[in-house]
Predict the 3D structure of the following.
Amino acid sequence: MNADYVVVAVVSTLAIALHVVLFVLIRRWMDRDLALSFGGDDPLKRDWMLGQLACARRQGVRRRDLPAWLERASAGYDTGAEAEHAEAAG
């Protein structure tokens, strides 16, 4: 009968771990989609916003503050830098 408890404990632990992993992945995907939405249709700005998302993670920006932080970063996107990227690429 002890083996039954061990099996239940192992399966329960694995199920909880799976849910935690899925929860973390889905949150990351949502944050990435949020950053990309501020980039619009411009591929350079989208890449730049992904870099800003990485910067926000390094700075430890809280998740509830992330939308406002990314919005400020998006507003600060320098169109002159966009022109420099276009010249370098083309």
User: Anything to note?
Assistant: The CA atoms of residues 23 and 39 lie 25 Å apart. The first helix runs from residue 2 to 39. The chain has a mean pLDDT of 89. Helices lie at 2-39, 43-59, 66-75, 79-89.
